[in-house]
């Protein structure tokens, strides 16, 4: 039988810490399992192996037991108290997103969570009770003890206590001594960044970091007018995080070969330094090919990063230096010189940990809130979106077609506003015009669900819109759908293979769906450009175009129950890519409904050049329309146009990336644009299509709404101006 270990009682009643574990570089604790009770062995000078002769002779020595109460939490108690803790029903439950909205933990600007927040029940401390929590720490090249301090936040009697903790690097846990005779209701382990404080005088000062002597800040004489206190922090790069980001989006994040640690300064200096401050940063990476990669100096002045065009010199191997007049954070990156500046800055923000790449997923269901249409809106990390999709589909939810948001650059604890627009509203009892999602990296499910009702004062169109507003640029991502069509396709059984993904969870999420949008777009799958057959013969008549278009409609139309169509969730996501622009949004609309929509459209303010053309169909055929995207639907575009409003032709042409010559020609040939064209421009801006593809998308969109005049105009502009480029774009 293994001998037990005696733990000397060296508790300090004032500090409430376990001095017996002050050496955080100990070997991993040896824990032996004994019917869910563990004997703890700490190989330290404060521990000595017991023998049969001296156990009874050491009066101040105590034997401790470890109880595993959660997969990531254990308590260490005296052996005589172990049975009482085992008999109590002690639970640890993670805080939900709603809990985090209603409650706040006391964090400073230098604090960050390294565990979830756990709500506890039944945890009453006696004496000599400690808690050990599994923590999540960044994988850095600098020792965690050199850059962070560790604490445990404990809630008791509706107040929070901050208790010092000891980090055990061998098994990645935080050990904390709990106060005696106290009921614990919530716990959370945090880390606090350590600052190096210096005072810069009028004579100047050279700061040399204790963590890396190659990192220096040289304040020359006369840089400040009076003594200035400065706090300097070193924020290391999490290499594990970088690896995950490059796996998620290699096209974007592989453009950053390496990045130095970020040096952050805090000072009460309301203006630029009188003289430039020299910054010297180490970079442990060599440039493999100077034709493709180059060192860049990144400076943050508050929250926005920028690339300095000043000279960045290599003072010694792997050490770069430059001079700046002001900064809050600084770093050096080895970046691809052929990458756009916007993409480089976006990648730097994410890699540095200042922001996260997030997505909003929108699901619908009729089985949660009284069988009425309900939306489930969830904010997730982009790298976890596929896993969340599968989980939600397994729970019976269906992703809303075309709702997949672009990658959003969101900071921790930042809010994303969600507003309902157009033809739906919150049901009575929900006194809100908007919801918001608060991003929290540790929250497992950050979502809300609410029923929606149709506005009774609105007329027949069922299309609705949701707007997500995020980031300081107030970018808006619109989502729109028809709840009536959605409900029919969800509830009515069908054998149509194209609709299976609406009624059943999809297990095969192919790589053709959008991987990233926004900053740094990556679209996987074969490139399928829209083929403009009419460009082969410039004398082709309108009747030939209509005939060709009608044949295309018959080939692409997919019949669904009730003559109402809705693309599958998988096709919806893939069709948003400009690389998959063939056969988007296959659908049918009854002739009577289409006629009604045309009458509604004629009542809207418009800038039609001449009456729209009509399809000539035999009397025994039903008029059909094929829309490449829901935004090309006349009903949907009409409703969304009310949200976006109108714009001038010149502004629209600039948005599309046309040149000055193109704008002049377009302005000469028309006096304005239809409001639907504004919506189309918004969509094209998000797709970031090539210029020739945009012409094709414009033609197909105008064909879908019977605007043959604009189809001719688009084709004429394309044929007459093949040689123009975007180099003279304003």
Automatic annotation (TrEMBL):
<dbReference type="InterPro" id="IPR011029">
    <property type="entry name" value="DEATH-like_dom_sf"/>
</dbReference>
<feature type="compositionally biased region" description="Polar residues">
    <location>
        <begin position="568"/>
        <end position="584"/>
    </location>
</feature>
<feature type="domain" description="Death">
    <location>
        <begin position="650"/>
        <end position="718"/>
    </location>
</feature>
<dbReference type="InterPro" id="IPR000488">
    <property type="entry name" value="Death_dom"/>
</dbReference>
<feature type="compositionally biased region" description="Polar residues">
    <location>
        <begin position="531"/>
        <end position="550"/>
    </location>
</feature>
<feature type="region of interest" description="Disordered">
    <location>
        <begin position="496"/>
        <end position="550"/>
    </location>
</feature>
<dbReference type="GO" id="GO:0007165">
    <property type="term" value="P:signal transduction"/>
</dbReference>
<feature type="compositionally biased region" description="Polar residues">
    <location>
        <begin position="496"/>
        <end position="505"/>
    </location>
</feature>
<feature type="region of interest" description="Disordered">
    <location>
        <begin position="568"/>
        <end position="589"/>
    </location>
</feature>
<protein>
    <recommendedName>
        <fullName>Death domain-containing protein</fullName>
    </recommendedName>
</protein>
């Amino acid at each position: 039988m293994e001998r037990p270990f005696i733990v000397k009682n060296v508790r300090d009643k004032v500090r409430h810490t376990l001095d017996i574990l002050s050496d955080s570089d100990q070997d991993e604790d040896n824990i032996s399992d004994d019917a869910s009770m563990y004997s703890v062995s700490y190989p330290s000078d404060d521990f000595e192996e017991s023998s049969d002769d001296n156990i009874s002779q050491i009066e101040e020595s105590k034997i401790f037991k470890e109880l595993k109460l959660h997969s990531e939490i254990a308590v260490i108690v005296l052996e005589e108290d172990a049975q009482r803790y085992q008999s109590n029903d002690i639970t640890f439950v993670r805080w939900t997103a709603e809990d985090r909205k209603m409650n706040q933990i006391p964090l400073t600007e230098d604090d960050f969570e390294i565990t979830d927040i756990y709500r506890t029940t039944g945890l009453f401390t006696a004496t000599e009770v400690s808690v050990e929590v599994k923590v999540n720490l960044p994988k850095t090249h600098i020792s965690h003890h050199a850059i962070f301090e560790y604490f445990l936040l404990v809630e008791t009697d509706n107040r929070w206590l901050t208790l010092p903790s000891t980090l055990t690097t061998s098994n990645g846990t935080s050990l904390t001594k709990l106060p005696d005779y106290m009921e614990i209701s919530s716990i959370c382990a945090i880390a606090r960044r350590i600052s190096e404080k210096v005072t810069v005088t009028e004579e100047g000062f050279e700061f040399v970091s204790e963590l890396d002597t190659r990192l220096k800040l040289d304040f020359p004489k006369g840089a400040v007018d009076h003594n200035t206190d400065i706090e300097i922090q070193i924020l290391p790069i999490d290499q594990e995080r970088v690896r995950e980001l490059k796996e998620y989006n290699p096209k974007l994040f592989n453009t950053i070969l390496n990045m130095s640690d970020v040096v952050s300064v805090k000072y009460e200096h309301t203006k630029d330094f009188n003289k430039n401050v020299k910054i010297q940063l180490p970079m442990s990476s060599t440039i493999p090919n100077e034709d493709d990669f180059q060192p860049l100096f990144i400076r943050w002045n508050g929250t926005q990063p920028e690339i300095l065009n000043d000279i960045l010199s290599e003072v010694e191997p792997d050490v770069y230096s430059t001079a700046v007049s002001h900064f809050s954070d600084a770093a050096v990156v080895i970046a691809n010189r052929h990458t756009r500046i916007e993409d480089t800055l976006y990648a730097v923000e994410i890699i540095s940990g200042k922001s996260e790449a997030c997505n909003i997923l929108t699901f619908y269901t009729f089985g949660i809130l009284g069988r009425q249409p309900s939306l489930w809106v969830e904010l997730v990390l982009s790298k976890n979106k596929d896993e969340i999709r599968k989980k939600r589909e397994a729970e019976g939810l269906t992703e809303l077609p075309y709702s997949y948001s672009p990658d959003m650059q969101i900071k921790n604890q930042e809010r994303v506003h969600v507003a309902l627009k157009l033809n739906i509203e919150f049901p009575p009892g929900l006194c809100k015009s908007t919801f918001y999602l608060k991003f929290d990296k540790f929250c497992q499910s950050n979502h809300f669900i609410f029923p929606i009702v149709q506005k009774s004062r609105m007329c027949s169109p069922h299309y609705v819109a949701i707007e997500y507003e995020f980031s300081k640029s107030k970018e808006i991502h619109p989502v729109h759908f028809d709840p009536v069509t959605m409900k029919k396709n969800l509830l009515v059984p069908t054998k149509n293979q194209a609709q299976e993904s609406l009624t059943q969870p999809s297990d095969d999420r192919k790589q053709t769906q959008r991987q990233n949008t926004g900053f740094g777009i990556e679209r996987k799958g074969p490139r399928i450009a829209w083929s403009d057959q009419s460009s082969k013969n410039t004398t082709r008549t309108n009747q030939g175009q209509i005939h060709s278009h009608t044949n295309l409609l018959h080939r692409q139309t997919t019949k669904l129950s009730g003559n109402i169509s809705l693309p599958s969730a998988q096709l919806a996501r893939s069709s948003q890519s400009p690389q998959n622009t063939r056969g988007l949004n296959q659908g049918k609309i009854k002739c009577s409904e289409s006629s009604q929509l045309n009458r509604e459209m004629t009542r809207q303010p418009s800038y039609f050049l001449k009456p729209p053309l009509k399809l000539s169909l035999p009397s025994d055929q039903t008029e059909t329309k094929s829309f490449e995207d829901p935004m090309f639907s006349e009903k949907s575009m009409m409703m969304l146009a009310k949200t976006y409003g109108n714009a001038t032709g010149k502004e629209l042409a600039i948005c599309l990336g046309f040149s000055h010559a193109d704008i002049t020609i377009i302005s000469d040939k028309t006096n304005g644009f239809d409001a639907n064209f504004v919506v189309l421009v918004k969509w094209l801006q998000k797709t970031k299509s090539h210029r020739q593809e945009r012409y094709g998308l414009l033609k197909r969109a105008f064909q879908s709404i019977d605007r043959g005049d604009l189809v001719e105009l688009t084709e004429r502009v394309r044929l007459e101006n093949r040689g123009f480029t975007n180099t003279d774009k304003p």
